[in-house]
Amino acid sequence: MFSKKPDSTMVKNFSNHRTGPTSGFSMLGNDITLTGNVEASADLHIDGRVIGDITCKALVQGEDSEIAGGISAESVRIAGIVRGTITAREVVILKSAQIIGDVAYDALTIEQGARLEGRLSPNGGQMPPALARLPHAVSDDGAEVVIAAE
Predict the structure, then answer these.
(1) What is the pTM of this model?
(2) Which family does the similarity line name (predicted)?
(3) Which of 63, 110, 104, 58 is nearest to 82 (CA)?
Protein backbone atom coordinates (compact mmCIF):
# COMPACT_ATOMS: atom_id res chain seq x y z
CA MET A 1 0.00 0.00 0.00
CA PHE A 2 2.74 2.50 0.93
CA SER A 3 5.54 0.84 -1.01
CA LYS A 4 4.63 2.41 -4.36
CA LYS A 5 7.42 4.57 -5.80
CA PRO A 6 6.58 8.16 -6.78
CA ASP A 7 5.55 8.67 -10.39
CA SER A 8 8.56 10.11 -12.24
CA THR A 9 6.28 12.22 -14.44
CA MET A 10 5.32 14.26 -11.39
CA VAL A 11 8.91 15.34 -10.70
CA LYS A 12 9.81 18.65 -12.31
CA ASN A 13 13.33 19.46 -13.39
CA PHE A 14 14.22 23.10 -12.72
CA SER A 15 17.83 22.83 -13.89
CA ASN A 16 16.92 24.13 -17.35
CA HIS A 17 15.99 27.63 -16.14
CA ARG A 18 17.14 30.60 -18.19
CA THR A 19 20.19 32.47 -17.02
CA GLY A 20 20.55 34.95 -19.89
CA PRO A 21 18.32 37.77 -21.10
CA THR A 22 14.81 36.74 -22.03
CA SER A 23 12.88 37.72 -25.09
CA GLY A 24 9.42 37.58 -23.51
CA PHE A 25 7.46 40.20 -21.66
CA SER A 26 6.63 41.03 -18.07
CA MET A 27 3.28 42.25 -16.78
CA LEU A 28 2.35 44.38 -13.79
CA GLY A 29 -1.31 43.75 -12.93
CA ASN A 30 -3.91 46.37 -12.11
CA ASP A 31 -3.91 45.45 -8.43
CA ILE A 32 -0.20 46.26 -7.96
CA THR A 33 1.45 49.53 -6.92
CA LEU A 34 5.23 49.52 -7.34
CA THR A 35 7.40 52.21 -5.77
CA GLY A 36 10.91 52.32 -7.18
CA ASN A 37 12.67 52.30 -10.52
CA VAL A 38 12.00 49.47 -12.98
CA GLU A 39 14.66 48.21 -15.38
CA ALA A 40 13.87 45.35 -17.75
CA SER A 41 15.53 43.84 -20.78
CA ALA A 42 12.15 42.49 -21.88
CA ASP A 43 8.93 44.20 -22.95
CA LEU A 44 6.67 45.47 -20.16
CA HIS A 45 2.88 45.64 -19.98
CA ILE A 46 1.74 47.80 -17.08
CA ASP A 47 -1.85 47.88 -15.87
CA GLY A 48 -1.04 48.90 -12.30
CA ARG A 49 0.63 51.93 -10.76
CA VAL A 50 4.37 52.68 -10.86
CA ILE A 51 6.00 55.46 -8.86
CA GLY A 52 9.50 55.63 -10.31
CA ASP A 53 11.39 55.61 -13.59
CA ILE A 54 10.94 52.82 -16.14
CA THR A 55 13.61 51.61 -18.58
CA CYS A 56 12.75 48.74 -20.90
CA LYS A 57 12.76 47.56 -24.50
CA ALA A 58 9.07 48.25 -25.15
CA LEU A 59 6.30 49.51 -22.88
CA VAL A 60 2.56 49.03 -23.22
CA GLN A 61 0.47 50.91 -20.66
CA GLY A 62 -3.14 49.96 -19.93
CA GLU A 63 -5.98 52.49 -19.77
CA ASP A 64 -6.37 52.35 -15.98
CA SER A 65 -2.62 52.48 -15.33
CA GLU A 66 -0.68 55.36 -13.79
CA ILE A 67 3.04 56.05 -14.05
CA ALA A 68 4.71 58.80 -12.02
CA GLY A 69 8.24 58.92 -13.35
CA GLY A 70 10.31 58.99 -16.51
CA ILE A 71 9.98 56.39 -19.27
CA SER A 72 12.84 55.35 -21.53
CA ALA A 73 12.26 52.64 -24.16
CA GLU A 74 12.59 51.76 -27.83
CA SER A 75 8.81 51.89 -28.25
CA VAL A 76 6.05 53.15 -25.98
CA ARG A 77 2.27 52.78 -26.24
CA ILE A 78 0.50 54.99 -23.68
CA ALA A 79 -3.19 54.57 -22.77
CA GLY A 80 -3.28 55.69 -19.13
CA ILE A 81 -1.84 58.53 -17.05
CA VAL A 82 1.87 59.46 -17.17
CA ARG A 83 3.43 62.16 -15.01
CA GLY A 84 6.99 62.41 -16.27
CA THR A 85 9.15 62.54 -19.37
CA ILE A 86 8.93 59.95 -22.14
CA THR A 87 11.95 59.22 -24.33
CA ALA A 88 11.51 56.62 -27.07
CA ARG A 89 12.16 56.01 -30.74
CA GLU A 90 8.48 55.23 -31.39
CA VAL A 91 5.70 56.76 -29.28
CA VAL A 92 1.99 55.98 -29.67
CA ILE A 93 -0.39 58.02 -27.51
CA LEU A 94 -3.89 56.57 -27.47
CA LYS A 95 -7.07 58.63 -27.05
CA SER A 96 -7.47 57.55 -23.40
CA ALA A 97 -3.96 58.79 -22.47
CA GLN A 98 -3.15 61.75 -20.24
CA ILE A 99 0.48 62.85 -20.23
CA ILE A 100 1.90 65.57 -18.03
CA GLY A 101 5.51 65.90 -19.15
CA ASP A 102 7.75 66.19 -22.18
CA VAL A 103 7.91 63.60 -24.96
CA ALA A 104 11.08 63.01 -27.03
CA TYR A 105 10.59 60.73 -30.05
CA ASP A 106 11.67 59.70 -33.55
CA ALA A 107 8.19 58.60 -34.69
CA LEU A 108 5.02 59.89 -33.02
CA THR A 109 1.35 58.94 -33.30
CA ILE A 110 -1.32 60.74 -31.26
CA GLU A 111 -4.96 59.67 -31.40
CA GLN A 112 -7.62 62.35 -31.36
CA GLY A 113 -8.79 62.89 -27.78
CA ALA A 114 -5.45 62.25 -26.06
CA ARG A 115 -4.36 64.90 -23.53
CA LEU A 116 -0.80 66.17 -23.40
CA GLU A 117 0.63 68.90 -21.18
CA GLY A 118 4.27 69.27 -22.13
CA ARG A 119 6.65 69.69 -25.01
CA LEU A 120 7.06 67.42 -28.01
CA SER A 121 10.65 67.07 -29.15
CA PRO A 122 11.78 65.08 -32.19
CA ASN A 123 15.15 63.71 -31.20
CA GLY A 124 16.63 62.09 -34.30
CA GLY A 125 17.42 58.89 -32.42
CA GLN A 126 19.28 60.63 -29.60
CA MET A 127 18.16 61.79 -26.18
CA PRO A 128 17.94 65.59 -26.28
CA PRO A 129 20.04 67.44 -23.68
CA ALA A 130 16.92 68.89 -22.02
CA LEU A 131 15.69 65.38 -21.19
CA ALA A 132 19.02 63.90 -20.09
CA ARG A 133 19.27 63.08 -16.40
CA LEU A 134 20.03 66.29 -14.59
CA PRO A 135 21.52 66.80 -11.13
CA HIS A 136 18.99 67.74 -8.45
CA ALA A 137 19.52 69.98 -5.47
CA VAL A 138 17.35 71.21 -2.62
CA SER A 139 17.14 74.91 -1.76
CA ASP A 140 17.16 76.36 1.75
CA ASP A 141 13.36 76.42 1.86
CA GLY A 142 13.16 72.69 0.92
CA ALA A 143 12.06 73.20 -2.69
CA GLU A 144 13.62 70.94 -5.31
CA VAL A 145 15.87 72.72 -7.77
CA VAL A 146 16.62 71.21 -11.17
CA ILE A 147 19.86 72.38 -12.75
CA ALA A 148 19.57 72.40 -16.54
CA ALA A 149 22.31 73.00 -19.09
CA GLU A 150 21.23 74.61 -22.34
Answers:
(1) 0.69
(2) Belongs to the bactofilin family.
(3) 63
